[in-house]
Design the sequence.
């Protein structure tokens, strides 16, 4: 009797350690792929990095050239998308979580989920028809709009999820003090969900910063510095695409360097927002 | 004794399911009334009809009248926000906001625009914390997170928060049920202390607690008010056999 019990215990301990090792191995595997990608990009890209590369515009092969205008273009279009998409997305998420338990909310939720699933190139074509054709040319505005549309449903749905995690007792506490519903949503629920919402927004920003397809139709590209939204605009992703598909080795090296910059920028944004929204209370 | 709240023929429904049946009850001013009864008997539901917290449940409906200071709070056009300022509430689980200790207490004052200046706000926060017997424990860390307080302190913080908006009635939904005996004792002493200024309605599972703090006790079962009498009488010589059975622990 004692023996069987002992062997059962032993078996359970062994299975337990095996499973722990297995899950740990999977975790290491998953992160090591990421580390491998990042270090490979770093190794490949680092040799072509220089101050000139970061500030120059693209030039004919053999004359150097860089990604200065692409960095500016990406930043401007991402900024436009954030300005347009983030407030609307967060507000829509608040609505869905706090007031959207009805047929209308269900429709909005369904539409948002569908929009998330639409391939980004289709959004590019949509903006092409709606903005680029009437304007007669590609522009930073069209690119930013396309990115905003991609961002909007992601932000709305993650905001909704995060707000649902705020315990109802907190809402009741505020209501019981005589707070009107909108104030409860605005200065109790929203701050309580802030770090989660910021994380969702970060994911959305990282996603749109990495988008290429919707920009091909809408912002096109530019060989020059361009600070106006009504003109075609360069972006890091499209520039990487151009360099990477070029026939020359020098261009490939510059594609790696641009990739390194893109990944680095996304990382910096992430760390910065983490820092801003770290839990204070 | 003057009645602060008088409830007559109150029925309450969750959708089609009736949760309260024909409740008629008078709550005297500046007294403590305890609601006791087995789980699911409707005592919490009833408590929440008194500040219309049940409004947040879409399928809930109420018939009958609840008069506070002679005003029917279910009358069309009642300002629920003003009502809840007058009838404060403390919940079973302490629910501080994710803010500092100071901001938690200041929240109700700020949203209702009660204070006249920054100094006045600080004074009101201090008074509320002092009235909730918490000031001495937190005065040196007002700007730190409310989540850093112990369970008992959090609950007293929630009481301070409710007091800060100067209500006339305080509803307490099992305020000490999640606390240890020492914290419970502090809350009970506080409740008795608060009676001087406030009308208090307290739901409790703990019969000794009802006996210790309340002036009158109402016993509920299956959504019906079985008996309502002075606490002294309730616990020594109840009118109803059911009350006696419950109090002596024969069921529930």
Sequence:
């Amino acid at each position: 009797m004692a023996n069987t019990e002992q062997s059962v215990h032993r078996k359970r301990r062994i299975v337990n350690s095996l499973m722990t090792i297995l899950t740990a191995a999977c975790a290491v595997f998953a992160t090591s792929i990421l580390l491998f990608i990042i270090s490979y990009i770093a190794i490949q890209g680092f040799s072509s990095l220089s101050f000139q590369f970061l500030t120059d515009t693209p030039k004919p092969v053999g004359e150097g050239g860089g990604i200065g205008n692409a960095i500016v273009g990406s930043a401007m279009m991402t900024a436009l998308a954030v300005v347009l998409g983030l407030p609307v997305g967060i507000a829509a998420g608040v609505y869905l979580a706090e007031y959207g338990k009805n047929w209308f909310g269900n429709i909005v939720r369904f539409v948002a989920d569908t929009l998330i699933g639409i391939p980004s190139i289709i959004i590019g074509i949509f903006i092409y028809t709606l903005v680029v054709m009437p304007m007669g040319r590609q522009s930073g505005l069209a690119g930013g709009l396309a990115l905003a549309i991609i961002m909007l449903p992601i932000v709305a749905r993650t905001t909704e999820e995060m707000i649902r995690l705020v315990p109802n007792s907190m809402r009741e506490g505020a209501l019981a003090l005589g707070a009107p519903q909108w104030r409860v949503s605005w200065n109790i629920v929203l701050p309580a969900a802030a770090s989660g919402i910021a994380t969702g927004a970060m994911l959305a920003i990282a996603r749109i910063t990495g988008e290429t397809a919707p920009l091909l139709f809408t912002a096109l590209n530019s060989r020059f510095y361009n600070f106006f939204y009504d003109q075609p605009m360069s972006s890091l992703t499209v520039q990487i695409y151009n360099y990477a598909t070029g026939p020359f080795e020098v261009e490939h090296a510059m594609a790696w360097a641009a990739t390194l910059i893109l990944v680095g920028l996304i990382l910096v944004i992430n760390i910065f927002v983490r820092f801003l929204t770290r839990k204070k209370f | 004794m003057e009645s602060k709240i008088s409830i007559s023929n109150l029925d309450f429904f969750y959708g089609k399911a009736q949760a309260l049946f024909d409740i008629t009850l008078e709550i005297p001013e500046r007294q403590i009334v305890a609601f006791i009864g087995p789980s699911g008997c409707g005592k919490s539901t009833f408590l929440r009809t008194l500040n219309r917290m049940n409004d947040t449940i879409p399928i809930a409906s109420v018939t009958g009248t609840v008069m506070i200071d002679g005003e029917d709070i279910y009358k069309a056009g009642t300002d629920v926000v003003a009502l809840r300022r007058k009838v404060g509430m403390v919940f079973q689980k302490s629910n501080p906001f994710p803010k500092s200790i100071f901001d938690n207490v200041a929240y109700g004052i700020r949203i209702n625009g009660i204070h006249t200046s920054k100094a006045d706000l600080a004074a009101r926060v201090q008074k509320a914390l002092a009235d909730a017997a918490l000031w001495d424990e937190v005065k040196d860390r007002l700007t730190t997170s409310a989540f850093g307080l112990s369970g008992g302190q959090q609950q007293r913080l929630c009481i301070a928060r409710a007091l800060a908006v100067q209500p006339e009635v305080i509803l307490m939904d099992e305020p000490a049920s999640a606390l240890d005996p020492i914290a419970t004792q502090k809350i009970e002493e506080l409740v008795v202390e608060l009676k001087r200024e406030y009308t208090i309605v307290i739901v409790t599972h703990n019969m000794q607690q009802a006996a210790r703090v309340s002036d009158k006790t109402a016993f509920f079962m299956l959504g019906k008010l079985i008996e309502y009498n002075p606490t002294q009488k309730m616990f020594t010589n109840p009118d109803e056999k059911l009350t006696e059975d419950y109090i002596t622990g024969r069921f529930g």
About this structure: The mean pLDDT of chain B is 92. The radius of gyration of chain B is 18 Å.
